[in-house]
Design brief:
Chain A is α+β, with helices and mostly antiparallel strands. Chain A has eight helices and twelve strands. Chain A has three domains: 147 residues, 2-Layer Sandwich (Beta-Lactamase), CATH 3.30.450; 89 residues, Helix Hairpins; 142 residues, Histidine kinase-like ATPase, C-terminal domain (Heat Shock Protein 90), CATH 3.30.565. In chain A, the strands form three sheets. Chain A has a five-stranded antiparallel sheet. Chain A has a five-stranded mixed sheet with strand order 8-9-10-12-11. A two-stranded antiparallel ribbon of chain A has the order 1-2. Chain A starts with a helix and ends in a 5-residue tail after the last strand. Chain B is built from eight helices and twelve strands. Classes of the chains: A alpha+beta, B alpha/beta.
Chain lengths: 443, 220
């Protein structure tokens, strides 16, 4: 798709060029005919003036009284000429010198306009006027050189063209500026969409031209629906957990209480089933609660939520007085749903603290994605078990030694986020080591 | 030790109450958040077991209100959701411990004991003051001669409270408040009877009487 700016811009330039060309043609031809008309009417006046200077004497000879004649008609090749003819007699202006002017036969009252080449490469406008005086007919032909007028007309035309080009240029610049300005709101929407993807904002700004408003409010509406759906399903799942856990707790209390009066086999089976239901509920509910790469939830803040989480874990393990060390750059940033990340880190830290003697270390590095490494100084896992943990398809919650539900939930999350989970032995602390990497959130 | 159990599920609350009483707690219950918040502000409780999913006012809100009013009551939070964000919220709101449902009553009792020890700055599994050792599970006290004496319910509650507050003046009404729950007949004169009985068991100089003020358990 071509850009809107270049499409609108080229359309506007072409139409402006067309408008200016038509305008130029109209104005030029208008001026030309106006000038011709003006000269012709002046020549007719001259012809009448000339008529008053000639007379027929008693012999019928044409005589002229040159005193009242304009000086331009006496200067050779001045560009103003006349020719008076009557029945073979000819009187011509001195300005014609040795040049002759062809003239048409005209009857009395008739006026003929024509163009012909004059002396000195002149272009002449010629008017033949038919008159009758003292009972005889005569014709007065007057001519004027058009070159000076043509010259000023072409000067005007070139001025006009220059001005038009200048205006065209200014208009093009102006429209480019206007277009750029109006398309800036599109650019803003684009950058806001990017921020939205990264979770920096939750809604698009609505201070926009009316053409964009419906689009943006539709996007905002959809975002709202998505957020509401996530909240609603999380609430429903939470209520469900609540509803299941209460009777389960009562059952557990009863089984515990009647431990001594109940057949051992029955008690054991009941206790096992209760644990199984509980784990299953927890795991399925947590998997269902995952926001994944969808947007709409609150984002995890490494600067604020991580210290809160570590504080919570430290209180939970206050009896063991474990120190949790954090290694992370200040600028480290990763966009992920807050509840998901708390669940992930909480389970990993819980597991580490459970096994640690006194130190748990968490290192976080974010570069396009995020990599988290959690180590402890506990007994660690033996290589055989690590292999088992690595094997695909091994259900973590079925492995022994307490690497249970927490890690199973973590592995569910990693799968949802298409990240990776690696278990190993910590070289620095000697205990268990978990490496988690999550890819960068795709749009 | 007087305990407030804020739990809306009747069956669970009734079962837990029995276990808690058997473990030597004077237990009052609240089945909604508003009542729980009100009772928690009465400053007669030593510890609270607070369910987060209470009706009328959520446990989290109750806890936040207590803490913002400067009420530092030790609180163990119970929750069904078991989600980490909820745990973090709970601790941020001022919870002292956390227990996900379902749980064994023993685990709750162990955490309660640990929390009470922590609050009284007496960490460690057993409650030992000078040369006396109180076994909170069996409700016996071991005297320096190595003999373990079985205690009645009220004797245990009274001794535990005194051992957790050694060297402090404890008035009769304070002791009554902390070893009996709301439903009991509170006759502070009965306290004298139990004090006499404890003196017989532990030696008369351990509990000092301050006339008109109350009793002091000597910690050395």
């Amino acid at each position: 798709m071509r850009s809107l700016q270049s499409r609108l811009g080229s359309g506007l330039i072409l139409s402006l060029i067309a408008v200016f060309s038509v305008l130029w043609l109209l104005v030029s031809s208008g001026i030309q005919s106006l000038a011709d008309e003006y000269i012709a009417s002046r020549l007719r006046h001259d012809a009448e003036m000339l008529l008053s200077t000639v007379n027929f004497d008693a012999n019928g000879n044409l005589v002229q009284d040159e005193t009242g004649i304009d000086l331009v008609y006496t200067k050779p090749f001045s560009g103003h000429y006349y020719l008076i003819t009557s029945a073979g007699q000819v009187i011509s202006s001195r300005s014609l010198w040795d040049h002759s002017l062809s003239h048409a036969e005209v009857s009395t009252g008739q006026i003929i306009r024509s163009y012909q080449d004059g002396p000195d490469k002149q272009l002449l406008l010629v008017i033949d006027n038919g008159f009758s005086k003292q009972g005889r007919s005569l014709s007065v032909t007057v001519a004027e050189d058009l070159n000076p007028v043509i010259q000023s007309i072409s000067q005007f035309q070139s001025h006009f063209a220059m001005t038009a080009l200048g205006l065209l240029f200014l208009l093009v610049i102006l429209q480019a500026f206007i277009l750029h300005h109006s398309l800036r709101s599109l650019a803003r929407v684009r950058s806001e969409l990017k921020q939205l993807q990264q979770g920096k904002i939750e809604q698009l700004g609505t201070d926009l031209p009316t053409e964009l408003q419906p689009l943006v409010s539709e996007v905002n509406h959809l975002l709202n629906i998505m957020t509401q759906q996530l909240h609603r399903s999380r609430d429903v799942l939470g209520d469900l957990a609540h509803a299941i856990k209460k009777p389960l707790t009562v059952m557990q209390q009863l089984t515990d209480k009647h431990r001594d009066t109940m057949p051992a086999e029955l008690q054991e089976t009941l206790a096992k089933q209760i644990i199984a239901i509980n784990r299953l509920t927890d795991r399925i509910l947590k998997r269902a609660r995952l926001a994944g790469h969808h947007h709409g939830g609150v984002r995890f803040s490494l600067a604020q939520d991580l210290p809160d989480l570590i504080n919570a874990v430290e209180i939970m393990y206050s009896e063991k007085s474990i120190s949790i060390q954090v290694e992370m750059d200040k600028e480290t940033d990763y966009q992920i749903d807050r509840e998901d990340m708390l669940e992930l880190l909480g389970n990993l830290l819980d597991n580490a603290c459970k096994w640690a003697n006194s130190i748990v270390k968490i290192s976080i590095r974010a570069k396009s994605g995020i990599s988290i490494c959690i180590e402890d100084d506990g007994p660690g896992a033996d290589p055989e078990m690590l292999q088992q943990l690595d094997k695909r398809g091994v259900r973590l919650d079925e492995t022994k030694q307490g690497y249970g539900l927490g890690l199973a939930i973590v592995s569910d999350m990693i799968r949802e986020y298409q990240g990776s989970l690696v278990f190993g032995r910590s070289e620095k602390l000697g205990g268990f080591r978990v490496d988690v990497t999550l890819p960068a959130g795709e749009g | 030790m007087r305990l407030l159990l804020a739990e809306d599920d009747d069956a669970l609350a009734a079962g837990l109450k029995k276990e808690l009483i058997a473990a030597g707690y004077a237990v009052d219950t609240a089945d909604n958040g508003v009542e729980a918040e009100y009772l928690g502000n009465e400053s007669i409780y030593d510890v609270v077991v607070l369910d987060l999913g209470l009706p009328r006012r959520s446990g989290l809100e109750v806890l936040r209100n207590w803490r913002s009013n400067g009420n530092a009551l030790p609180v163990i939070v119970l929750t069904a959701r078991n989600a980490w964000h909820e745990r973090v919220e709970g601790f941020k709101a001022g919870a002292d411990d956390y227990l996900g449902k379902p749980f064994h009553a023993e685990e709750l009792l162990a955490r309660l004991t640990a929390l009470l020890h922590r609050t009284s700055h007496m960490p460690g599994g057993t409650l030992t003051v000078s040369d006396l050792l109180l076994d909170e599970e069996r409700q016996t006290v071991t005297t320096p001669d190595g003999e373990a004496h079985r205690l009645t319910g009220t004797e245990f509650r009274l001794l535990r409270y005194m051992l957790l507050h050694p060297g402090k003046v404890l008035s009769k009404s304070l002791l009554t408040e902390h070893i009996y729950n709301m439903d009991s007949d509170k006759d502070s004169n009965v306290i004298e009877v139990y004090i006499r009985r404890l003196r017989q068991l532990l030696g008369s100089d351990r509990i000092k009487t301050l006339r008109g003020q109350g009793y002091v358990f000597r910690d050395s």
